[in-house]
Structures are given as C-alpha cells and as structure tokens.
Specification:
The structure is a single chain. This protein is mainly α. It has a domain of 92 residues. The chain is built from 8 helices and no strands. The radius of gyration is 18 Å and the shape is globular.
C-alpha cells in the first residue's frame, strides 16, 4: 500500500485538490504527509499540481454549474439537492455582495482564501456566477484566494507537523 501511495502520490493530491469542500485545504496536508513518508517527495511540484487541480473546475463551474443547477432544481430525484446548491450559492453571493459593496473582487478573494468549510474555489466561483461577475475578474479573485488559502493552510501544516514531530521526537 505504501509503495502505491509513493508511486501515485502526485496523482492522488491532484485528484484530491479537485474534490469540492476538500480542495487544497485537504490536498496540502496530504502532500505534507507524503513528504513525511517519502523524503524524495517534491513539495514545490506538489503545490503546483494542487493549484492546477484546484483551478481546473473553475471555468466549468462559472459557465455551466448555474445553468445545470437551475435546470435540475425542479427535477424529482435531484431537485432538492440542486435547489440547496443554488440557495447556498445565492445566499453566499448575496452575503458577499452586501458586505463588499464595490469591493466585490476583494471580498470574493477573501471568501475563497479563508480556509473554512463551505468556502473555496467551487463555492466562490458559483457565487461569482450567480452574482453575474465577469469571468476574468472572478477567476483572478479565485486565483488570489486560492493562493491565500494555500499560504494559510501551509503555515498551519508547518506549525502542526512541527509540533507533532517535536512531541513524537
């Protein structure tokens, strides 16, 4: 099992960074775990892979998620979940808009960048789409937010793993 993880570690963190709610908040700690088990694991390469994996869904979400959710909101089996997603995106977007005013770009960046459950590239992009923000500024705000989240999660990982290694000694 360990050899499989070593062999496919970069692929796993890439896929993990694309999963909603997990995104880079889960992929960065996973990369540090790989690094702890394999000194040859390249963290710089892992960060690049994680950032790319986290950003790949953004254009798809921006252009298609809202349309798919609106289409499926009245369908029998998926309607409740799709309505929930639309309401969450709309609620998050309106909250962002009311607090931000003209600083919507910065608000979106911080919304994506503060690593809390329910915030991130997926939700931020959906909120930007629902708020009818333009694509270019939405993507730029999400990229900046992803970078901010990566810094915060990295610091927490470094402090956390450092403390753990000190205790485990």
């Amino acid at each position: 099992m360990i050899s499989l993880l070593k062999k496919y570690g970069y692929l796993w963190i890439f896929l993990l960074s694309m999963v909603p709610l997990v995104e880079l908040r889960g992929a960065i700690p996973a990369a540090y775990i790989y690094k702890a088990n394999d000194p040859g694991f390249n963290l710089v390469l892992a960060y690049i892979i994680i950032a790319v994996g986290n950003m790949i869904p953004v254009p798809i979400i921006f252009f298609f998620a809202r349309k798919v959710l609106e289409w499926g909101a009245d369908k029998p089996v998926i309607g409740k979940f799709f309505t929930f997603c639309l309401e969450k995106g709309h609620k998050g977007g309106e909250k962002l808009k009311s607090k931000a005013g003209k600083g919507l770009f910065v608000a979106l960046m911080f919304f994506v960048g503060i690593p809390l459950p329910g915030t991130g590239a997926w939700t931020g992009t959906l909120a930007a789409s629902i708020l009818d923000m333009d694509f270019k500024s939405s993507v730029l705000a999400v990229i900046c937010g992803v970078a901010l989240a990566a810094i915060i999660v990295s610091v927490v990982c470094l402090l956390g793993f450092g403390a753990w290694l000190g205790i485990a000694g």
